[in-house]
Amino acid sequence: xxxxxxxxxxxxxxxxxxxxxxxxxxxxxxxxxxxxxxxxxxxxxxxxxxxxxxxxxxxxxxxxxxxxxxxxxxxxxxxxxxxxxxxxxxxxxxxxxxxxxxxxxxxxxxxxxxxxxxxxxxxxxxxxxxxxxxxxxxxxxxxxxxxxxxxxxxxxxxxxxxxxxxxxxxxxxxxxxxxxxxxxxxxxxxxxxxxxxxxxxxxxxxxxxxxxxxxxxxxxxxxxxxxxxxxxxxxxxxxxxxxxxxxxxxxxxxxxxxxxxxxxxxxxxxxxxxxxxxxxxxxxxxxxxxxxxxxxxxxxxxxxxxxxxxxxxxxxxxxxxxxxxxxxxxxxxxxxxxxxxxxxxxxxxxxxxxxxxxxxxxxxxxxxxxxxxxxxxxxxxxxxxxxxxxxxxxxxxxxxxxxxxxxxxxxxxxxxxxxxxxxxxxxxxxxxxxxxxxxxxxxxxxxxxxxxxxxxxxxxxxxxxxxxxxxxxxxxxxxxxxxxxxxxxxxxxxxxxxxxxxxxxxxxxxxxxxxxxxxxxxxxxxxxxxxxxxxxxxxxxxxxxxxxxxxxxxxx
Length: 556
Description:
This protein has a seven-stranded mixed β-sheet with strand order 5-4-16-15-14-6-7, sandwiched between helices. It has a four-stranded parallel β-sheet with strand order 11-10-9-12. It is of the alpha/beta class. The chain is built from 20 helices and 18 strands. It has three domains: about 95-150, Single Sheet (N-terminal domain of TfIIb), CATH 2.20.25; about 155-225 and about 390-530, 3-Layer(aba) Sandwich (Rossmann fold), CATH 3.40.50.740; about 240-385, Dimethylsulfoxide Reductase, domain 2 (3-Layer(aba) Sandwich).
């Protein structure tokens, strides 16, 4: 129905506008169209029918069409909203909540505070309550929130590539446990990634005791153990080296991108930034020796670009200038640069530090440890603590056992060796010699293709667990949401293979925390609230006075 504007009795004034060419022409048919209330033919009713009868018939037609549409799926989707049976403590509708958790890394973890909006995690920041932390993170922690909603993650459990239910998976793990009990673990092998989880370490110990003939193997495509290996060899005992860049006035980086790709970059970023802002002793000074521009090199005060093979020569030149016994200065064009760096490091003394990158050979890490010992940095800018990771064999020993037919059941937790294992090991070929391959993974990748059973893994934001930071402090892995696709954690998989009665990751973590001092509910709640266990940091190893002699380069 058209809307006819009311007649205005006021005289027209000002410019006159027209809406169309027809209105401008002002033809009789246009005037008739303007004056008609209904379209042409609307007032003509069928023979023998009144207008009222016609409206009734059309109304009934529209009603029946609507009912028919509801029966054929042409309706709005129905969604059920279930209210809280019991509203969580402190919950206010529409107000974000914050939970303490942590993101596990290779041998350590990042303590986090995660923002939850209406029951879903939406933002990640560092945990400022953790001693020695300032609430900082790195790029990987910030991107972890996107990884939770990754559409390419594993959505299902499979057996030989076919979908299977969770009940079938649990039965399969129970069969593995029964077979392991009968043979004392003979033929059972585990391939795991590095982890600082106290709960996984406890389960590994229990499995090794219950199945003494089983074998544990650890593998990472990138080896970050060079620094620890150098200090452990120098000390004569396993140690973990912690670098405190916030205490360092002079820093020499030997191809070590501690702001970007090195282990525990979040700690290094924070420490370096604090040293830059220090007003007491002046801003720190950074020397970088590298072949390709890195984030650390971009922040350097003095940067020396060399070939990758020449980093060792520069390190040896600096060590010789500082008087490290047994090291001769190599001939080359870096002597002037090395002499200037060595002079600055010597003036800083124990407030200096030398760090080596993970891609450098053991000799460079050994020279860095020797220089730190001569400078007196060990115990100041470098502290040595007890290692927290469990001892395990490597992937070379595993491939040898697979080739010899000694492995009947292989359990792979997390890693993707079919893609990133060294090519000469031919892992994809030898893994097929195992009778059963059970793989827990976040993606259906190359290793999933060769597995008999592939179990969908969980994200750390949807699973219970625990971990240790770089200094050994125990932190919780607290879920903010139920597993989106019914995934499993490695704690549950290991508990089922062990034949434990408590297979829930929550119960496993609580049992572990009881052994670490959180024996009652109050301590457990405080652990979850603060995001760390007070007094759980690793003990210091005081070997600084003997380090120089043990390393073989002389020193203090």
